[in-house]
């Protein structure tokens, strides 16, 4: 099974350009460049570093003033020229921060990141550079990167170092408590959020949860931190369903209020997780409305676990519920049920095809089938059927009704329950492929049991 990286990163579910998203947020956040306040907050340089303390000439001053108020596109070449001509300027770090921000605002994230790294080479404790790198990493990281382990390690190091620098930062005498908090809290939230993101990618949920809790405490309006915290709660052992559902509901409420493009995808994922635990989507809208007004759940907040499904009279649905309900309860009950049924053959089930994909093995196809009406309505699936004997299954399309049989191979319980069978379709298969293109379906990604 694939891990839910696509949903974790939110390059993940938002279907946007990584650089465009990061650039947009960097542009409007104002967290990386507040020259007056930042200058007061920077840690003092190391005593061993002998640096100029004033302008070397009027020409240097004029070259600096020529770009400081320019828009990003005009600032970039002038700032680059300044650094080339005055590589030892006492304003070098200031210029590199401005250049980093300008590259981000023009969506050149590679050069923005490179500038941040150069800035840290000469000023390892520079909080603007550390905060910028922590901010953009979750948007630019790709699970498919060949060097992803090294990238995650480096991002975790940046975040930890940023937190250490903030911890040691002393409030200057000419800065008020409110100003100091306004400077520290957003950066501390970024560092904790990125540390939590890295832990989430590494499936280290025990460390992801406290980092992300700290992030949302400092920034209770962070959509992505709440969403990631919900994921960490959901995938913990055992899952913390109450906090998972609340935190994802908070993410949905914030995304909807801000017209964030991730709102629909996060809401769909939350709905699937909620139904998988609660049984129906009843009450979910009320939870989202409640989460809109508070970052923390009210005292005693609890989502009731599903009750045993009543008989429907539909043999396929009733058989599926009888088989899977104990597995959905988790714990010892689920383990006993799975020990009893794993590897056993089942037949007589039916459902609606949501998609057909080519399998990883030659001549293998994977059918995703919705057995339960609620699953079909949510465009999800209950069954993953691995078929290696029927080439014509490729001719099925979304909406086709099928009967099937197979051997129980595995299952996942979160965020939605899916049972995997190795088997075949027992109803008639079309001889030819569909005459019209299949409609793509959003499918959740699951964590292996």
Q: Can you tell me the overall shape?
A: elongated
| Low-pLDDT windows of residues | 1-40, 43-49, 441-449
What would you call the quaternary organization?
single chain
Q: Element order, helices and strands?
A: HHHHHHHHHHHHHHHHHEEHEEE
CATH class of the largest domain: Mainly Alpha
What fold name goes in the CATH topology slot of the largest domain? Serine Threonine Protein Phosphatase 5, Tetratricopeptide repeat
The CATH architecture name of the largest domain reads Alpha Horseshoe
What is the β-strand count? Answer: 5
Q: In total, how many domains does the architecture comprise?
A: 2
Topology, element by element:
Blueprint: H1 5-9, H2 18-29, H3 35-41, H4 58-65, H5 72-85, H6 92-105, H7 109-122, H8 127-140, H9 148-168, H10 177-201, H11 205-218, H12 223-235, H13 241-257, H14 263-278, H15 284-292, H16 315-329, H17 331-341, E1 345-358, E2 365-370, H18 373-377, E3 383-387, E4 401-412, E5 418-425
Parallel strand pairs: 3-5
Antiparallel strand pairs: 1-2, 1-4, 2-3, 4-5
Could you characterize the architecture of this molecule?
There is one protein chain. The protein has 449 residues and is an alpha+beta fold. The chain has two domains: 5-220, Alpha Horseshoe (Serine Threonine Protein Phosphatase 5, Tetratricopeptide repeat), CATH 1.25.40; 315-425, OB fold (Dihydrolipoamide Acetyltransferase, E2P) (Beta Barrel). Helix content is 52%, strand content 10%. The protein contains 18 helices and five strands. The chain has helices spanning 5-9, 18-29, 35-41, 58-65, 72-85, 92-105, 109-122, 127-140, 148-168, 177-201, 205-218, 223-235, 241-257, 263-278, 284-292, 315-329, 331-341, 373-377; strands spanning 345-358, 365-370, 383-387, 401-412, 418-425. It has a five-stranded mixed barrel with strand order 1-2-3-5-4. A hairpin with a 5-residue loop joins strand 4 (401-412) and strand 5 (418-425). Helix 16 (315-329) packs across helix 17. The longest helix is centred in the middle third of the chain and has 25 residues, at 177-201.
């Amino acid at each position: 099974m694939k891990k839910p990286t696509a949903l974790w990163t939110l390059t993940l579910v938002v279907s946007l350009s990584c650089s465009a998203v990061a650039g947009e947020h960097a542009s409007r956040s104002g967290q990386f460049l507040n020259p007056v306040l930042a200058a007061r907050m920077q840690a003092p340089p190391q005593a061993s570093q002998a640096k100029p303390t004033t302008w070397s000439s009027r020409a240097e001053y004029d070259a600096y003033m020529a770009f400081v108020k320019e828009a990003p596109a005009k600032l970039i070449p002038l700032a680059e020229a300044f650094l080339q001509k005055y590589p030892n300027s006492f304003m070098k770090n200031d210029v590199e921060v401005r250049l980093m921000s300008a590259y981000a605002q023009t969506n050149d994230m590679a050069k923005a990141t490179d500038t941040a790294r150069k800035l840290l080479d000469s000023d390892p404790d520079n909080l603007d550079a550390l905060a910028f790198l922590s901010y953009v990493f979750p948007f630019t990281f790709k699970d498919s990167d060949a060097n992803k382990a090294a990238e995650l390690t480096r991002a975790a190091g940046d975040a930890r170092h940023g937190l250490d620098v903030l911890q040691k930062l002393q409030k200057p005498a000419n800065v008020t408590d409110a100003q100091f908090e306004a400077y520290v809290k957003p950066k501390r939230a970024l560092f904790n959020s990125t540390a939590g993101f890295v832990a989430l990618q590494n499936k280290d949920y025990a460390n992801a949860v406290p980092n992300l809790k700290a992030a949302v405490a400092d920034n209770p309006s962070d959509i992505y931190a709440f969403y990631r915290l919900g994921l960490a709660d959901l995938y913990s052992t055992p899952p913390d369903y109450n906090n998972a559902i609340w935190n994802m509901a908070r993410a949905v409420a914030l995304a909807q209020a801000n017209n964030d493009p991730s709102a629909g995808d996060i809401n769909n994922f939350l709905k699937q997780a909620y139904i998988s635990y609660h049984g129906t989507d009843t009450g979910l809208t009320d939870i989202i409305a409640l989460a809109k007004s508070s970052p923390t759940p009210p005292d005693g907040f609890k989502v009731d676990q599903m009750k045993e499904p009543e008989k429907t009279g539909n043999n396929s649905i009733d058989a599926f519920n009888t088989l899977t309900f104990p597995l959905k309860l988790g714990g010892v009950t689920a383990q006993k049920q799975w020990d009893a049924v794993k590897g056993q053959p089942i037949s007589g089930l039916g459902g609606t095809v949501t998609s057909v994909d080519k399998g990883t093995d030659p001549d293998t196809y994977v059918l995703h089938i919705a057995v339960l009406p609620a699953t079909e309505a949510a465009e999800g699936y209950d069954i993953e059927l691995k078929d290696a004997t029927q080439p014509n299954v490729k001719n099925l399309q979304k909406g086709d009704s099928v009967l099937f049989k197979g051997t129980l191979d595995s299952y996942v319980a979160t965020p939605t329950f899916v049972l995997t069978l190795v088997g075949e379709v027992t109803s008639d298969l079309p001889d030819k492929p569909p005459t019209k293109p299949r409609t793509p379906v959003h499918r959740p990604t699951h964590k292996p049991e």
